[in-house]
Salviol synthase-like (Salvia divinorum), 504 residues
Amino acid sequence: MNFDSSLILFLTSTSVLVFVFVLFRTNNLKYRNLPPGPWKLPFIGNLHLLSGSAPPHHVLSNLATKHGPLVHLKLGEISAVVVSSADTAEHFLKANDVVFASRPSLLAPEINCYGNTDIAFAPYGDYWRQLRKICSLQLFTAKRVLSFRPIREEEVSELCKSVALNAGSAINLTEKVGATNLNIMVRAAFGKNSGGGEVSELNSIIKEAQEFVSCFNIVDVYPSWRLLRVFSGMRRKIMKHHEQLNKILDSIIEERKKAKGNDEDGDGDRDLLDVLLRLQGDGSLQIPLTTDNIKSLLMDGAGVESSTTATDWAMAEMLKNPRVLKKAQDEVRATFDGKNHVDESLFHELKYLKLVIKETLRLHPPGPLLLPRESREHCVIEKYQIPTKTWVLVNAWAIGRDPEHWEDPESFKPERFLEKPIDFKASNTFQYIPFGGGRRICPAIGFGIANIEIQMAMLLYHFDWLLPHGIEAGDLDMNESSGLSGKRKCDLSVIPIVKRPLLH
Ligand code: HEM
């Protein structure tokens, strides 16, 4: 039999079209009432909207203005919704919290966090519940955070010494604050002092790990294309990085286990590694912790970058608003002038500084889209269908600037929190959610805030701050970087003037 090739072509294309049409209809019938959203292109959906240089939370906030507080997007193969109002966030993070309490599996944490066995990316379930219990009863209790006070005070004093060495000339404050936060975290986790070898290698690897999760990764939105992971080179790059990290962590843990063996007194937990090794050894956990689990928990260093971002923005906002800078500085100096140095014992008196930090986190949440959630089952929210495995991006940045809840929302006014006593825990409102909300809210709020407070208090106490020559307060670049981290686009360059010398 001889077939006409044009007929074959005709039949093939017709059947493909019919197949695509049926598939489209079936999907649309199944989810006829998805939330509104922009027109989706074949294959890429709405990915192109996020491919420009504007930060994703800005693009998504503009979409919300057009389509409403609940927007549906297609990101490659992924169905996603974006939440941009306090009321809608409440549906996801409170009323249906348990449905949206999981995270999508993303390549970077999957490799770097030993198969998503850390807290931030572990899927919702018994293992994650056990980790949260360890957080609230062991790792981030008020007592534990207090036990790290000497580390914070020492490291921030070192920061001030290094700033003082460059007094009178422009310094990169962002970089210095970033290094300090990394040192605090590494010492709290491993008890290791900075200053060379293994620790500085660990610091730079942790910094690199943050880069992997600070942008949307194309391989994550085409999960069925396993080969894309290989051909894009992404998997190899992350694996190489992970192997370096793993080697250092193994050596630190091995060294600690040996030291513990020789430590006959067993004089308590000095750092987070001690706590986790104790829990691993004492048989008290329902699901035993493996050494890989411990390594992944210690790598949940999200907080390092968040604290740096917050301090960076707080300093930038104050330089732009000299009234606020002076008021905060007067408070810190009035509180500590009797002592001639800053320590945490009088922090309860720094009422205005606390307002400055709150206002900074409203305008510049370090996780503008929180961490992505994933629906565990099909759900209906505000009459719209949310299919299983939909990603949920909550735009905390847009919610903190919503004119419906915030008067003059773009202005930096710490005093607004005097009239609006609102806490970090999203207990009764979702108008302010820099730490997220519901079951997966940040478990280390106290730790994060303690880091920011000490840095700000010491930097304000010891130094006056000027912008480099030629830059007026009104000209300070307040743009954000293009990724998911809410960081400043440009590092903060400032001139410190010593006003209260460091005595030791
Ligand atoms: C200013 C400082 C910080 C900010 C703004 C911040 C913010 C956040 C946000 C927005 C989330 C996601 C919450 C959600 O999905 O609803 C989160 C989760 C998390 N944060 Fe923080 N964080 C900070 C500091 C820290 C620190 C210092 C640590 C640890 C050392 C930490 C550890 C975690 C962990 C482990 C999670 C995952 C929780 C889970 O999925 O169950 N954070 N954080």
In short: The two ends are 96 Å apart (CA to CA). Confidence is low (pLDDT under 50) at residues 1-5, 7-12, 18-29. The CA atoms of residues 406 and 491 lie 28 Å apart.
